[in-house]
Structure to design on (386 residues):
């Protein structure tokens, strides 16, 4: 047998990749598991997007390689989208780089800026990919704590005490996943000041701005942000297009050039019909977001009922596709809590520990299930409580 690389040994298969296999096995054995774990939007994209996709697929000239930096129409639409909803001016030729979803951007950015042995600041709790990618590129992971006491925002006093000398990159993610909390422009300004002071590239991963959030905010709206900050965005959640794999990176053109150097050696431009469909999605008016959010609002009422039933504690002010909640004190860990409901009710909640040690004691429930499914989950929990 040929042995895997040290890089591959440093990480584990993605938690959900493994958990989904376990759930599939249960389903194959006749159980009907209700999976409230994953943020995979089940609602459809805008109708016009499907129309545009079908139309452009029929164009016989649309099937070839595309530009490494995306088609002009897509970059221009991203630029208008940022102007309209975030009040941020971005040059569509130089300050926007379309990506195959924001997840690949996490790898490209890390490869473009971080040398083996340098450090990356990662939120705890946070999206697991930041840490896995840091390990893949041979960086030292330095976790910074987020906690309920600071409303899941960065504690700058604590941050200043960390070993910052070799830190090259810092991941932030607001609206935050898994905690659902938002940042303010003032907080982003403090982050930019911190990054300027320590010469750290700061990247805000921003895929949840349009879900249950009345004021989309970009870190690039802070005046000095172009010196030290980039932002990732994505259509996966905002337009229910996760399978299309359309995201983007925005910010200073010289940083984007470094990322393109890596990206253009790893993949080629996205399929043109997908780019045209994404352009169409970005050009939808505000009523699209309103109707999408009204569906999520109805679901949130049921998810809150469900969490009340299992005696979770949660903030009512959360943005994004999930509700983040404390487990009741009768359970010793988030995994024990999650396993209990998977075993007894065949309802799956994500244990908070998946997002880091500070996620212990919490669980996350997705809003990506129909009203019928959520009602069924409520019934099942009520049944085991009888
Ligand atoms: C915080 C965060 N960042 C990035 C991603 C990846 O999104 P995309 O589909 O754009 O790759 C996700 C997906 O769940 C996420 O939760």
């Amino acid at each position: 047998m040929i042995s895997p690389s040290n890089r591959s040994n440093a990480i584990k298969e993605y938690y959900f990749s493994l958990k989904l296999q376990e759930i599939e096995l249960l389903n194959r054995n006749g159980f009907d598991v209700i999976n409230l774990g994953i943020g995979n939007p089940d609602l459809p994209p805008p109708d016009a997007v499907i129309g545009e996709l079908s139309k452009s697929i029929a164009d016989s000239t649309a099937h070839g390689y595309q530009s490494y930096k995306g088609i002009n129409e897509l970059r221009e639409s991203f630029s208008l989208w940022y102007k309209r909803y975030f009040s941020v001016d971005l040059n569509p030729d130089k300050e926007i780089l379309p990506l195959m979803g924001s997840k690949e951007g996490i790898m490209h950015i890390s490869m473009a800026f971080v040398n083996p042995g340098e450090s990356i600041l990662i939120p705890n709790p946070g999206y697991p990919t930041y840490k896995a990618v840091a390990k893949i590129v041979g960086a030292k992971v330095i976790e910074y704590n987020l906690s309920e006491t600071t409303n899941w925002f960065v504690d700058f006093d604590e941050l200043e005490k960390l070993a910052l000398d070799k830190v090259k990159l810092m991941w932030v993610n607001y609206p935050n996943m898994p905690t659902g909390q938002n940042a303010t422009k003032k907080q982003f300004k403090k982050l930019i000041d911190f990054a300027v002071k320590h010469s750290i590239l700061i990247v805000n991963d921003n895929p949840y701005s349009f879900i249950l959030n009345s004021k989309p905010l970009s870190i690039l709206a802070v005046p000095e942000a172009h010196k030290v900050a980039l932002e990732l965005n994505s259509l996966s959640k905002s337009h229910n297009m996760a399978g299309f794999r359309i995201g983007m990176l925005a910010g200073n053109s010289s940083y984007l050039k470094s990322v393109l150097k890596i990206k253009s050696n790893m993949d080629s431009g996205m399929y043109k019909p997908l780019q045209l469909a994404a352009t169409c999605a970005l050009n939808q008016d505000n009523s699209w977001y309103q109707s999408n959010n009204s569906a999520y609002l109805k679901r949130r009422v049921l998810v809150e009922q469900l969490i009340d039933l299992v005696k979770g504690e949660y903030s009512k002010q959360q943005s994004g596709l999930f509700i983040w909640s404390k487990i009741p004190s009768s359970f010793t860990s988030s995994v024990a809590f999650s396993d209990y409901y998977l075993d007894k009710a065949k309802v799956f909640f994500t244990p908070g520990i998946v997002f880091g040690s500070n996620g212990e004691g919490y669980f996350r429930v997705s809003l990506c299930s129909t009203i019928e499914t959520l009602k069924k989950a409520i019934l099942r929990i009520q049944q085991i409580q009888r």
User: Anything to note?
Assistant: Residues 324 and 364 are 5 Å apart (CA to CA). The chain has a mean pLDDT of 96. The chain has two domains: 6-44+287-385, 61-284. The chain has 15 helices and 13 strands.
